[in-house]
Amino acid sequence: MTLLSHSARERVRAAPPKGRWSPFPWVYLVPLLAIEGVFVFAPLSSALAVSFQRYDYFVPGGWIGFDNYIWALGNSGFLNAVGVTTFFTAFATIFTFAFGFGLALMFERDGRSSSLMRTIVLIPYFISMLVGSMLLRWVFSEDAGLFGLLLESLGVEPFSVFGDPNTAMAALVANAVWRDSAFAMMLLLAGLKSIPSSLLWAARVDGASYFYTFRRIVLPLMRTAILITIVRLVIFYVNILTFPLVLTGGGPNGATETLVLWMFRRGFEEYAIGRANAASIIIFLINIALVAIIIFLFNLGSKRR
Questions:
Q1: Which of 3.90.226.10, 3.90.180.10, 3.30.70.3450, 1.10.3720.10 is the CATH number of 68-304?
Q2: N or C: which end of the chain has fewer CB within 10 A?
Q3: Of 192, 167, 17, 173, whose CA–CA distance to 101 is shortest?
Q4: Number of neighbouring beta carbons within 10 Å of residue 107
Q5: Is 133 in a helix, a strand, or coil?
């Protein structure tokens, strides 16, 4: 018979019986729930209440039901912002994910050169979004920007990048990719590091090619890291404000005016607080729907495998 020490017997005696509920572990959740209540649920509840009111210039004007929602969903500017946000989010997510995955594969191996290159790649991500957007605005400037000087050196007439809808959107996507590829790299690099090296060595011994190993071993084992990266990028780009506000100003003619920028202008330029809060609730629901769709598609893809 194994003899328990005195301290072990005390721990067994102090442990609650099996199947008996103990409130003690829930005490650790109280600070987190309090923070969530103050900084998430309270503002969300306030925004929901204001969205049902005629609330202009911070002065409540009475309950009007769903009028703000009906107005927003029928507004041409809002519908244009939905299209702009969809286009921007899709291309920014695709290119950022692709560049981030490529960087993660390039710098996966540990070493001095890889560590140095990771640090260099991370520099844009640690630059403020405001500063980075202003820097790119100068780079794409028609008069004294580096892009214009490059075109002149190639014998091409400089043109206004922000004056054309296509090039303005391309600049906006480039800003997102330039800054956030490093973030995608970090998440995907963590996924690569979690793959057991024994599996890769076994595949190499069996004569599996690099692409076969990548498709059959690396990608399936990185499913969680890929899902987290895509969800994080989509949520970030759907709710982006600084990039279009500073880089393009939403122009030309609303070609780069995203949903959050449209909402920002209703609230802080027109002071239509009720309508802006209704738009924020709609954007919140869009976020939930997008995350649910992405998770559903990932689960559907894993079942087919």
A1: 1.10.3720.10
A2: N
A3: 192
A4: 21
A5: helix
Q: What is the pLDDT of residues 236-292, one digit of tens each?
A: 999 999 999 999 999 888 999 999 999 999 999 999 999 999 999 999 999 999 999
Q: Which H or E element spans position 212?
A: helix 210-213
For the chain, give every domain's residue range: 68-304
Those residues with Cβ within 8 angstroms of residue 95's Cβ, 6 or more apart along the chain or in another chain: 173, 176, 177
Taking each helix axis from N to C end, the angle separating 165-193 and 76-106, rounded to the nearest 10 degrees, works out to: 40
Model confidence pLDDT, tens digit, residues 139-178: 888 776 777 777 777 777 777 888 888 999 999 999 999 9
Long-range contacts of 41-45 (CB under 8 A, 24+ apart): 44/284
Q: Report d(CA 47, CA 274) in Å as an integer.
A: 8
CA 203 – CA 180 distance, rounded (Å): 33
3-state SS record for 33-58 = HHHHHHHHHHHHHHHHHHCCEEEECC
Output the six-digit token pair for 74: 């029928």
Residue 59: helix, strand or coil by DSSP? strand
State whether the Cα torsion 214-216-218-219 is positive or negative: positive
Query: What count of other Cβ atoms lies within 10 Å of the Cβ of residue 265?
Result: 17
Tell me the residue ranges of DSSP E strands in the chain.
53-56, 59-63
What does 195-234 look like in DSSP terms, one character per residue? S-HHHHHHHHHTT--HHHHIIIIIHHHTHHHHHHHHHHHH
- Give the list of residues 6+ apart from residue 73 with CB closer than 8 angstroms, or none: 79, 282
Query: Which burial class, exposed, middle or buried, applies to 302 when counting CB atoms under 10 A from its CB (0-12, 13-18, 19+)?
Result: exposed
Instruction: For residues 231 and 228, give the distance between their C-alpha atoms in angstroms, rounded to a whole number.
Output: 5
Count CB-CB contacts under 10 A for residue 236.
16
CA 57 vs. chain centroid, Å, equals 31
Q: Rounded distance, CA 124 to CA 247, Å?
A: 16
Q: Which two tokens stand for residue 139?
A: 């780079």
